[in-house]
Amino acid sequence: MSSVVVVGTQWGDEGKGKITNALSSDADLVVRFQGGANAGHTVSVDGTPIVFHLLPSGISVPGVRNIIGPGVVIDPIALDVEIAEVIDRGIEIGENLMIDVGAHMVLPYHKALEAAEEKARGNAAIGTTHRGIGPAYADRCARDGIPIGTLAAFDVFRSRFEEIVDRKNEYLVRLYGEEPLDAGEILEQLHPVAERLARHLSDTPETLRAAIRAGRNVLFEGAQGTLLDVAFGTYPYVTSSCTTAAGVAAGTGVPPSLIGEVIGITKAYTTRVGAGPFPTELTDDTAKTIQERGSERGATTGRARRCGWLDIVALKYSIALNGIRRIIVTKLDILDSFETIKVCVAYDIDGSRTDRFPRTVDELRRIRPVYEEIPGWMSDTGEARRESELPAPALAYLKRICELADVDICSVSVGAKGDALVEFTSVF
Ligand code: GDP
After folding, report:
1. Three-state DSSP class for 278?
2. Sign of CA dihedral 246, 264, 295, 233
3. Is the CB of 328 inside a 6 Å radius of any atom of ligand 1?
4. Average pLDDT per consecutive 10 residues, the chain (428 residues; last block may be shorter)
5. Do 411 and 423 form a contact (C-beta atoms < 8 A)?
6. pLDDT, position 374
7. Which of 309, 298, 323, 308 shows the shortest CA–CA distance to 401?
8. What letter would DSSP give residue 388?
């Protein structure tokens, strides 16, 4: 099958950007299907890091076409800035970027409302990225959204925007006591942006279906991770979109029957940004070591990430939800200095042992992880490019993950650089 979906199996930040960037060189098309500018994919271009929030990772690979699908919510101003930055770095975009006309827009009132809502939640704040993603998806469902294709006829957009912004200002002022937004100022800012983005607007689903039918390599690039899925994640501490492989059909117009293999990206340990349950979270020096060695800070927000050991119960849950048979393990090198590594093999909830991932936050909070200890390798894996170059205990760790999660590993990432990969089997 020529189409491959890449999804994070944890709470996002698994290093999907590097992997999709590496896979992009073998792809004809790279497609974003959900999320918005709350995603932050760091890729390394000619040795220098560059962060993509909305652009698919394939944008940095010459000749690869990229689609932002209708399931994505797009902040047109943020996308315009991102495109300019990429062009500044000498990357040609031209025809290589298609923005589906049906993708909804994140507009300044979404961001203002999100900030006001998070403030009003007080201690119960979710820890959102304040990029307006949740309110934009909510507006789409409430039939109050504006698809980006509307920008092609600015007058049509203007009248729809003016009607909606008045109502949003009512919420901001009367409910939250905030300042109203200046509609005229926003329209003035959006007008040139609309002109620049218009050249990329396109009706993409048929292009995509035809490419898959013709046997082209298509890479669907997931943002965030499975445990942040709006329906199956640790609700309400989730993102507002469907982050699992199921989101591909809904977010691109490609039927499930045309979707090929789903590859899971699994970090060799676990991190989580923002609030919400995290069964294997550590608060000791180990967490600090992982945080520092792994530079575990949000690519979008700069926030320090919470760190802990790999959670097999959660991994098995993700594998089942996404239909994953192969995973790519990332950041193995971050564990290089540990004498002993732990893996959570089961949960203890109120004295009973289970390997079921609970569906309620209340249960998730009561979990005590049951760990298995595995000897560390205490040596540098960063230079390994072949299986035989990995230390035996590192291979044993990987083998144990496969046994416990009943999955195969297709490659292992051992450094931030694009070539720091040990490939066992090829993806396409
Ligand atoms: P994403 O959103 O899933 O792409 O994850 P992040 O934006 O958090 O990217 C992970 C960070 O780790 C980026 O700076 C990557 O360059 C880096 N990275 C990815 N894979 C590896 C790896 O195997 N080892 C190390 N040391 N860094 C990695």
Report:
1. coil
2. positive
3. no
4. 90 90 90 90 73 89 94 97 91 93 97 91 78 95 96 96 95 94 96 96 96 96 95 94 97 96 97 93 95 85 88 98 97 97 97 96 94 97 95 96 96 93 81
5. yes
6. 96
7. 309
8. G
Integer Cα distance of 336 and 268 in angstroms: 11
Residues 6+ apart with CB under 8 A from 160: 146, 150
Q: Which three-class secondary structure state does DSSP give residue 331? A: coil
Phi/psi at 239 (5° precision): -95, 175
Q: From CA 102, how far away is CA 257, in angstroms rounded?
A: 22
Round to whole Å and give the CA distance between 254 and 17: 22
Which atom from ligand 1 is nearest to the alpha carbon of 17?
A: 4
Unique residue bearing structure tokens 């290089």 = 336
- The helix (run of H) or strand (run of E) holding residue 309 is none
Look up 200 and say whether it is catalytic: no
Residues in the chain: 428
What is the reported pLDDT for 25?
A: 86
Q: What is the DSSP letter of 174?
A: I
Please count the other Cβ atoms lying within 10 Å of the Cβ belonging to residue 135. 28
For residues 173 and 68, give the distance between their C-alpha atoms in angstroms, rounded to a whole number. Answer: 34
φ and ψ of 275, to 5 deg: -85, 175
Question: If you count DSSP H runs as helices and E runs as strands, how many of each does the chain have, helices first?
Answer: 12, 20
13 as an active site residue: the answer is yes
Report pLDDT for 155.
Answer: 96
Separation of alpha carbons 262 and 361, rounded Å = 27
> Residue 109 C-alpha to ligand 1 middle, in angstroms?
32
Q: Report how far apart the first and last C-alpha atoms of the chain are (Å, whole number).
A: 8
Nearest CA-CA partner of 204 in 66, 98, 96, 103: 98
Which whole-number Å values give the CA distances from 180 to 105, 175, 177, 331, in the listed order?
20, 11, 9, 45
| Dist CA 329 CA 369 (whole Å) | 21
SS3 at position 284? coil
User: To test ligand 1's pocket by mutation, which of 42, 297, 335, 423 has the most ligand atoms within 8 angstroms of CB?
Assistant: 42
Beta bridge partners, 45, equal 48
Rounded distance, CA 21 to CA 175, Å? 44
**Ligand 1 contacts CB of residue 416 (under 6 A):** yes
Q: Which residues pair with 264 in a beta bridge?
A: 7, 327
